[in-house]
Amino acid sequence: MTLTITNIKRVGSDKTESVTVENGKIKGWNLPAEGDVLDGKGGTVAPAFLEIHAHLREPGQTEKEDLQSGLAAAAAGGYGTVVCMPNTSPVIDDPALVRSLIEKANGLGLARLRPSAALTKGQKGEALAELTYLRDAGAVMFTDDGRTNENARVLRLGLEYAKSLGMVVSVHAEDATLRADGVMNEGPVSEALGLPGNPAAAEAARIARDMELVAQTGARLHVQHLSTARGLDIVREAKGRGLPVTCEVCPHHLDLTDEKLREFDAMYKVAPPLRTQADADHLLEGLLDGSVDCISTDHAPHTRAEKERDLLDAPFGIAYIEVAFPVMWTRFGEKLGLPKLIDLMTAGPARVMGWPVPTLDEGENADLVVLDLNTEREVNPAEFKSKAKFTPWQGQKLRGFPLLTVVDGKVAFQRA
Ligand code: DOR
Q1: Count of the separate structural domains present in the chain
Q2: Residue 258: active-site member
Q3: Is 225 a pocket residue for ligand 1 (Cβ < 6 Å)?
Q4: Domain Dihydroorotase catalytic: where (predicted)?
C-alpha cells in the first residue's frame, strides 16, 4: 500500500514538503505523488508519539475503555504505539492473554499495542509472574502499576529476573503505608478541605528504597508518573551515580495542582495526586534539563458514574490521551520548544524501552503524526474516541491537535 502526504513541514523547517510511505516504511521525501494522496494542510510532521503508560482496561473493565476505544483515542492523540498497563480483570499475567491482546489489537488498524505484563502474579506483590513466558509472548515491560510494590525482596527478585531477560521494570512509587487512605496531596489544601492527605514523602521514600534496589541489582528500573520535586531529586541523584534509572512525568502533574480539588470534584483524583505549583515547576525544570526521560499520560479512564461519586469513594485516574500533546504544546511549548517536546514523546520513551529511536528518514517505519500547531480548538470530550467523555481540560482552547496519524503506513486517524 502506498500513501503520499503532501503539504507538510518538518520540525524546524519552513519548507513545504511531501512524504511517500509504502509497505509500512518511509519510501522518500518529495517524490512524485503516488497511491492515496492526503493533504497535510500545512501541518508539522513528526514521528508518531509513543505512550508507555496507558490503561486500556481490557480485559474485564470494558465499561471504562477497551482496545478499540483506547487505541482509537491514542491514534487521535497522535500516538502510534501504546504500552498498556496490566491492572485489568483478570490481571495481564498470563502469556496467552498477552498474545490474544496483541492479536486483537493488530486487527484494528489503530495505534499499535505493546502490552506490559504484571511483575507479580495477580499483581499481588507476592510470587513473581512467569516473566520469561510473558516476554516471549510479547510483553514489553513488567509492572505492578496501579498497585505499589510493598515487598522489597520480591521487587529485588523481579529486577534480577527482568535484568536477565533484558527487560525494564516500571514502578508506581508510593509507599502504601504512608499514602494510607489519602485521596489528595497532603498540605494546606487537604487540611482546609478536611480530606485525608497523601504526603510527598510517600513518593520520595519509595523512590529512595527502589534506587537502592537498582544499585543492588544493576537492573533497569523506570519510575512512573513522578509527582514531587523531592522524588525527581532522588532520581537525579541516582542518575548521577550512574544507575540505570529512567523516569516519566505526566502532563496532569505539570498543568494541574491540588488547588483543583477545592470543589471536591473527583475528576481531579489521581494517584499519585496532583501536588503543588512548586512541585509542578520543579518537574518542568526536570524536563528542560534532561533529568526526566519522557512524557507519558497514565491515561486512566473510568465511567462517569464512578468519577461522579464522592471524592472519598471515586476511583483514582484522569483520562486525556487525545489532548496530551495539545496540553503540553499550549501550556509549555514556549518553554520547552517543539524539538524537545517531540523528543520527550518519541525518542524519550523509545530510550526508556530500549527501542530504536524513531525518525522520519527514508527506510524508517512509517509511523507519523501531522500536527496543527497554530489553530485553537475547544476541547470537546463528546468527540473523544475514548469511552471517558470528560477531562480536566474540557471547554479549554488548546493548540496542537493532530490532523493525521499514520501507523505502519496506514491511516489510523484523520481529523474531520
Ligand atoms: O490514578 C491512577 N489510576 N493511578 C494509578 O496508578 C492507576 C490508575 C488506574 O488504573 O485507574
Answers
A1: 1
A2: no
A3: no
A4: 45-228
Tens digits of residue pLDDT in 317-353: 999 999 999 999 999 999 999 999 999 999 999 999 9
Q: Residue 414 CA to chain centroid, in angstroms?
A: 21
Element (H, E) at 49: strand 49-54
- CA–CA dist 300, 309 (Å, integer): 16
Q: Is 53 annotated as a binding residue?
A: yes
Q: Is residue 367 part of a domain?
A: no
Distance CA 288, CA 335 (A): 8
Our answer on whether the CB atom of 95 is closer than 6 Å to any ligand 1 atom is: no
Q: CA 369: distance to chain centroid?
A: 16
**Does the residue 398 lie in any domain?**
no
Tell me the per-residue pLDDT of 360-398, one tens digit each, with 9 for 90 and over: 999 999 999 999 999 999 999 999 999 999 999 999 999
Cβ contacts of 289 within 8 Å, gap of 6 or more: none
CATH of the domain at 229: 3.20.20.140
Measured distance CA(25)–CA(11) in Å, rounded: 20
Q: Which helix (H) or strand (E) holds 47?
A: strand 36-47
Residues 6+ apart with CB under 8 A from 298: 53, 54, 55, 224, 225, 250, 252, 270, 317, 318
Give pLDDT tens digits for 281-297.
Answer: 999 999 999 999 999 99
Sign of CA dihedral 222, 261, 175, 236: positive
Q: Which of 175, 298, 372, 408 is catalytic?
A: 298
The whole domain housing 204 covers 48-356
Q: What percent of the chain has pLDDT over 70?
A: 100
CB-ligand 1 contact for 55 (6 Å cutoff): yes
